[in-house]
Amino acid sequence: MSRVTEILRALTDRNGPFEALTGAQEGFTVRLRDAEVPARIGLDGEGRIQGLFFHPAVPVSGGIEDHVRAIAALPGCAAVLVASEGQVRAEHAADRPLAVGSAFKLAVLRAVAGACADGRLAWDRVVRLDPGWRSLPTGLLQDWPAGAPLTVATLANLMIAQSDNTATDALIRLVGREAVETLAPRNAPFPTTREAFLLKRADAADLRQVWASGDAAGRRALLAGLADRPLPRADDLAPEATLEVEWLFTARELEALMRETHHLPALAISPGAVPAGRWRRVAYKGGSETGVLNLTALVTARSGIRHGVVATWNDTRALDPERLLAPFRGILRRLDDEA
């Protein structure tokens, strides 16, 4: 019970004192002064607690503008955009390019969807897993045998729902780096995750400096020089933030990419950081690494109105994810109240 007490103390310290408990064993809600916390409890045959799970808290106070101001006040650099049917309702620094981690995979998905639409690729095309595509986790495919058959759709589903880096690199190779660069010219040359990990090694500070100061031609030459290097181990990577090697997108660009791809099956598999609500459909992709956190969602209300919410936070110091997650969920809660 000491662990439960510790969790409850952390929740009340952040969200105010306990007020009420609603629901049943299958799913109940802890109401605190400033937030609601969905939770589940599992009991054994004798009615003793066997498992207890608290979902992230959802703020119940404050309007959309209040939550936007909370994001704007974060240390380092932050950006946020809230739009309904593509029309901006609230924003802060929405045109500032920031590191977004795995949210860049929305651009890869958009490029693949375009290639499937014009016949250069097909969702049901089967490819064999190439060892040269292997990257570090997150994901599953880095552990699969070479030559395993996979469809383009499976790769896309894993890239988005599991943030599978090997699937991502496979799709970049299949669709062509240039196709992704057309959608994200600021990021040309567009690195694969394998290339990014090689540049983010603890002993690669000199390469990161070359990348940061180089033009497109110099960066392409640098990537070509990495082609034969072995994939690093996870513990080879620099522990500090390495923001000089990143995929940079504005909140406005990510909102547009999400509007263009939200209908694709890959984006409906996992709701990610979007709290449960009365949504007809949830499309979500986020990204995180040391010093980087992005949350990008497009939710469709029962009325059919689509709302896009993008929030990004960068800092050279380690981030407390809850400081971005809480106002992000608060914005979605307010939008849900409108449904």
UniProtKB/TrEMBL annotation:
Q: Which InterPro entries does the record associate with it? A: Beta-lactam/transpept-like, Beta-lactam_cat, Beta-lactam_class-A
Q: Please list the GO biological process terms of this entry.
A: beta-lactam antibiotic catabolic process; response to antibiotic
Molecular-function GO term, any one: beta-lactamase activity
Per UniProt, residues of the Beta-lactamase class A catalytic domain are 86-185
Reactions catalysed according to its record: a beta-lactam + H2O = a substituted beta-amino acid
Keywords for this protein = Hydrolase
The protein, known as: Serine hydrolase
Q: Which organism is it from?
A: Methylobacterium nonmethylotrophicum
